[in-house]
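Margin note from the TA: students keep mixing up input and output lines. Inputs are the sequences; the output is the structure of the whole complex. Example:
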Amino acid sequence: MHRLEEMWIAISSGILVIFMIIVGYQTFALGMGPPSNKEIIDPQKVDQTAPFDEPGITKIGENEYEVVMTLQTFGFNPNNIEIPAGAEVHFIMTSKDVTHGFQIAGTNINAMVMPGHIQRISHTFDKPGEYLVLCNEYCGTGHQLMSTTIVVK
Amino acid sequence: MKELSALSLQQKTIKALGVNTKDAKISLSYLSVAFATLLIGGILGLVQGLQRAGLLELPPWLNYYQVLTAHGILLLLVFSTTFTIGYQYANLSHSLGGLLPKVRKLAWSGFSLMIIGVILVVTMIVLNEASVLYTFYPPLAAHPIFYVGLVFVVLGILACCFGVFINYRHWRKTHPGQTTPLLAFFAMGVFVLWFFASIGVTIEVLTLIPWSMGIVETTNVMVDRTLFWWFGHTLVNIWYLVATSAWYVIVPKIIGGRHFNEKLIRLVVILLVILNIPGGFHHQIIDPAISESIKFLHVFMSLSIAVPSLMTAFAMFAVFERAGRKKGGKGLLGWITKLPWGDVRFLAPMIAMISFIPGGAGGIVNTSNQMNQVIHNTMWVVGHFHVTVGMSVVMTFFGICYWLIPYLTKRKLTPQMNRLGVIQTIIWTVGMILMAGSQHLVGLLGDPRRTSFTTYGDHPRALSWIPYEYVMGIGASLLLLGVIIQVYAVINMMFFAPKGETTFPVAEPEDNALPAPMWTERWGLWSVLLLMVVAMAYVVPIVDMIVNAPPGSPPIKTW
Ligand SMILES: [Cu+2]
C-alpha cells in the first residue's frame, strides 16, 4: 500500500486509542460510567419485595437522599419529589411491567429501567428549579403522559 | 475447459446484449416493492412529523405508535432490504455473467417469502395488534402472527443469501486462479454479514412466538434485547456497506475516473464484515445487567468500525482528486469544480458521502459511554439515523436508480429526467438538513424520541422544544415531496422513458494497478474471524444474562 495510506491508517487507529484512553479514564478513574447496576428482582412481585414494597424518599445523610421508585405504565411512584438545593440523590428503580426510561431533562440523568432488573443512578441537584422527569422508552398508548417533576428549592 | 469457454462466451453475450432479461425481472420486482414501500412509509413519516409537532390530530382509529411502527418497519426493514437485494442481484448478474437458474429460483422464493411476511406484519400493525415499534422490545407483546411474519421476512433474506453464496462458489470454481469482480466481492460481504446478523433476531423471534401465544410463560427481556441489537445495528451497517459498493466501484466510473487500489477496497469490506456485529451493544450503554467493563469493551468494538470508514473517506477523496485533476483541475481545490455536479448519478451519492461525515461524528457520540447518556433515546438519535440512513444510504440508493433502472429496462436517462433528479436531490438534502438538524439540537435539550405530541402538562422545558418540532414538520413535508418525485422518476424510468442503451458503470483499476490479492477471497476464514469477534463480544454478557437472570416477564399489551 501507499505510504500516505499507511500513515492515514496509523493516524485513524491512533485517534481510536486516544479516544479509548479518555473514555476509560472517565469511566474507571472518575466514576462517570453509565448506569450498569446488576441486582435483580421478580418483576411480578415488585410490591412484595423490599425496598420496593415502600417506594418513597428517605434522608440518608447531610443533604443526601435515597429515592426508591417504581415505574409502571404510565407513571412514576413516588412522584412530585421535593428536595433542597445541593442535595445528592440516589435513585433506586425498577419496572413493574414493560421497559421504561428514566430521564431528567436538562441533566445527564438517563437510564433504562427494565422489568426484573434494579437500576441505580445518582445526581447532585445544584440549581434550584422544577425539573422535568420523563419516560423516554416507548411503553404503550399513554407513554407521552408518563412524566413527573422534581422540585429543587 | 469447455464449460469455461462457454461461460466466457456467455459473458461476452451479456456485454453485447446488455442485461439478462430473466435477471432484470428479479431486480425490477424487488425495486418495485422497494419504491411502493417508500411511498407508503414516506406518507406515514409526514403524518408522524406533523402529529409530533402538534399540527395534526390523528383520527380515533389510528394512533401515533401504530404509524411509527409501520414507518420504521416499512422503511428501515422493507424498503432497504428490497432495494439492496434488487441492486446487489443486478451487480451479481452483471459481474458474474448472469445468475444461475437455481439462484434465480432462490431469489424468487425469497421474494414470495418476504411478500407473505410483510403482509402478515403489516396486517397486524393495521389491526393495532402490534404497536410495538420497530424494535418490538419484550415484554411488549404483539400478536403471534406479527412474529410469524418476521420469520417469513428473515427466511426470504436467507434464501437470497444462499443464492449469492451459490453463484459466487460456482464462479470461483469455473474461474480457478482468478479473483472475483469487485461488485461480486461486495455482494459476498453484504450477504455474509446479513446471514450472520439474521441469526440473532431469528433466535429472538422464535422464542417470542410461543411466549406471545401463552405456551411459554415468561421471556428473558435482556437476552431478547441483546439479540435484537445483534441484528438491528448490523442491518444499518449492511445498508452502509451496500452504499459503499456504489461509492467505490460505480461513482468513479461516472466521474470518468478509476477505482482506488483494490487491495484497500477489499480490506475495507473484510473489516466491515468481521467487526460489525458487536456494534449493536452501544444501543444498550445505559441498560442494567451489563457491567461497566463489558460496556467499555463494546465502546471499543463499536468504534473500531471508524477505521475502515476513515479509510473509505481517504480513498474516495483521492479518487475524486485524481479524476478532477485529469480533467484539468488546477491548484489545491480546483479539481472540485471539474466534478460533474449536474449529473444526478454523481450528485446524489456525493452528498450522501459528505453527510457521512456528520453522520459518523454523531455515531461516535452515540457509541461513547458518557456522551451516550446525554442523548440516549432523545430526538438526537432520530436525527442521527436520518442523516446516516436517510442521507448517506438512501441518497446513494436514489442515485443508483438513475442508471440501474434504465439499464434493466433497456431505456435511457433523458436530460429532463436528470434535471428532475438533481431537483429531487436538492429538495431531499434541504429537507433532511432541516429535519435531522433540528432533531439533533432539540435532542440535546432533552426532547425524547418515540413519543407522540406532548407538552408534559405545559412544562416550560417541553414548551421550549416545540419550535424545533415545527422545523421538523417543515423538513418532513419537503421529504415527502422528495419521495413523490423519486417514485415518479422510478416509474417513468421503468415504463415510459425512451428505449435505448444504458451501460452499467463499473470503474476500471488504474493502469499501473497491482492485481487484487487472492487471499482476500477466503470467505471461510473471514466467517470464522467474524464468529470469533462475535464470541468475544457476546459470550460473557449473554451467559451472565442467562445464569444471573431474574424471573422472566409475561407478555404485556399496553396499547
Ligand atoms: Cu414508560
